[in-house]
């Protein structure tokens, strides 16, 4: 293959768009917490840009995309060894591919931070995302995209399994050690600034065009398919969520609509370049309904998935992965085209990644909890993490 | 682009007449249609909130939420 300028430009721009999702996520999460935890919540996203960017070029990329075996990549590209400015991956420079994939590696552990706001020690969070990036993200990425046992089988256009199932299920697992915030279920813990959340939600959607359409790794027809489905599915899911909330509680909240949009974005991620823009409508609607129900679960079971990472990313990711197996029609065939085996393969990917991510997260969490400790003290939690972990306050 | 050999003034006035046509057509069409759409919605669902709702604010009334709990 030779280098293609248009493809290279598109992937580089898409990489920057995906990075923009981190401040987007920081705003989305930061607005939803109390004023004493704003900066710490935002910092969880920001520090991931530091930690994982370095981890990725040192070892993550090699473990994910090195030749390796069915389970994990080799160490051949540690410190990007054997790759130079003229190396190509497909029609783009390997450096562009590494950058693009690195952005995915960065945002995935940052997504988990929404479940654990207001109670995790900052240094333990850093240790957690570093270990999680190496032990959980890199292998699952290798399975699905890097030549592992799911590569070429499980359809995951832009990371429904690699990014969303892995982070969503892990957010539930880590709660084993972190428990609830003080006062959860007793006092109402209200979002301190919904406008930040809406701006963040908008930036996430904007960045998601790079996330999904960039995953075509080329400036071509498939990128356009993924782009349009990334517009349609979140729209359908946002409207669906709004309607359900309106029906159940009498009000269509802005928070509900933006959460629905997020659920639609998650669900279309694995399907983005494999389904038609019209098929993106039922995908969005179904994801809206299922994620809405999933978010209600935490009230029933009493766990404090604070900002609904499991409900939206975990359940949305699984829903999207399975729906991809039903609606796939572009360069692939799903159940609706009579290929029922694809749905089974999708299920395999869901189960494998969910089981692996949750077991590893339990182990990583256990080790950090026993050594550094995961949770801040009661009084630190009361004062807030901005002050106790970072020595600063968001508002004066 | 190949430019016809007409005088600057003529071309200018041609372009201007096209612009005016576009402005008038779109302004008339959109205002008439908006009046009709607004009339229908107003007669069926109603358009404006009540006075007390307006006083309380639409965040609370329409969406059941508030922007800031700082």
Description:
In chain A, 67% of the residues lie in helices and 1% in strands. With 396 residues, chain A is mostly helical. Chain A has one domain: Ammonium transporter fold (Orthogonal Bundle). In chain A, strands 1-2 form a two-stranded antiparallel ribbon. In chain A, a hairpin with a 2-residue loop joins β1 and β2. Chain B has one domain. Chains A and B meet through loops of A and loops of B.
Question: How is the CATH topology of chain A named?
Answer: Ammonium transporter fold
Q: What's the CATH architecture of chain A?
A: Orthogonal Bundle
* Span between termini of chain A: 57 Å
Biggest sheet record of chain A: 2 strands, antiparallel
| Unreliable segments of 5+ consecutive residues of chain B | none
Class derived from helix and strand content of chain B: mainly alpha
Return the domain count of chain B.
Answer: 1
- Give unreliable regions of chain A as ranges: none
Q: How are helices and strands ordered from N to C of chain B? A: HHH
| Biggest protein-protein contact in the assembly | A-B, 16 and 9 residues
Helix content of chain B: over 70%
Taken in chain order, the helices and strands of chain A follow as: HHEEHHHHHHHHHHH
The description of the largest β-sheet of chain B is: none
Number of domains of chain A: 1
- Category by helix and strand content of chain A: mainly alpha
Beta-strand content bin of chain B? under 5%
Number of helices of chain B: 3
N/C terminus separation of chain B: 59 Å
In percent, how helical is the residue content of chain A? Answer: 55-70%
Count of beta strands of chain A: 2
């Amino acid at each position: 293959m030779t280098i293609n300028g248009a493809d290279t430009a598109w992937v580089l721009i898409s990489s920057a768009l995906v990075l923009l999702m981190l401040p987007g996520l920081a705003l989305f999460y930061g607005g939803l917490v109390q004023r004493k935890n704003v900066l710490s919540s935002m910092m969880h996203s920001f520090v991931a840009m530091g930690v994982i960017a370095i981890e990725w070029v040192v070892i993550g990329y090699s473990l994910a995309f090195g030749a390796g075996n069915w389970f994990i990549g080799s160490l051949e590209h540690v410190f990007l060894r054997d790759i130079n400015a003229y190396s190509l991956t497909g029609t783009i420079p390997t450096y562009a591919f590494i950058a693009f994939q690195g952005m995915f590696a960065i945002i995935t552990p940052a997504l988990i931070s929404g479940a654990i706001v207001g109670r995790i020690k900052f240094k333990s969070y850093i240790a957690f995302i570093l270990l999680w990036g190496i032990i959980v993200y890199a292998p699952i990425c290798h399975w699905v995209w890097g030549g592992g046992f799911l590569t070429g089988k499980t359809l995951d256009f832009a990371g429904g399994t690699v990014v969303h199932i892995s982070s969503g299920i892990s957010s539930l697992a880590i709660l084993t050690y972190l428990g609830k915030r003080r006062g959860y279920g007793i006092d109402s813990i209200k979002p301190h600034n919904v406008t930040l959340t809406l701006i963040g939600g908008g930036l996430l959607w904007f960045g998601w065009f790079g996330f999904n359409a960039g995953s075509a790794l080329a400036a071509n027809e498939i990128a356009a398919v993924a782009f349009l489905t990334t517009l349609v599915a979140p729209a359908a899911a946002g409207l669906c969520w709004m309607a359900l909330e309106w029906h159940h509680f009498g009000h269509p909240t802005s928070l509900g609509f933006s959460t629905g949009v997020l659920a639609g974005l998650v669900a279309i991620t694995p399907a983005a370049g494999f389904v038609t823009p019209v098929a993106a409508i039922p995908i969005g609607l179904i994801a809206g309904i299922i994620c809405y129900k999933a978010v209600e679960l935490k009230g029933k079971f009493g766990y404090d998935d604070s900002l609904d990472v499991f409900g939206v990313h975990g359940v949305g990711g699984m829903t999207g992965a399975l729906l991809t197996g039903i609606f796939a029609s572009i360069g692939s065939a799903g159940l609706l085209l009579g290929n029922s085996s694809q749905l089974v393969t999708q299920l395999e990917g869901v189960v494998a990644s969910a089981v692996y991510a949750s077991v590893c997260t339990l182990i990583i969490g256990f080790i950090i909890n026993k050594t550094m400790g995961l949770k801040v003290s009661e009084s630190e939690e009361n004062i807030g993490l901005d002050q106790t972990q970072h020595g600063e306050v968001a508002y004066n | 682009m190949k430019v016809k050999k007409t005088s600057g003034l003529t071309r200018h006035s041609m372009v201007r007449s096209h612009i005016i046509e576009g402005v008038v057509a779109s302004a008339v069409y959109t205002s008439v249609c908006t009046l009709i759409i607004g009339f229908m919605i107003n007669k069926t669902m109603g358009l404006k909130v009540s006075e007390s709702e307006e006083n309380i604010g639409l965040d609370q009334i329409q969406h059941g939420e508030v922007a800031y709990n700082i």
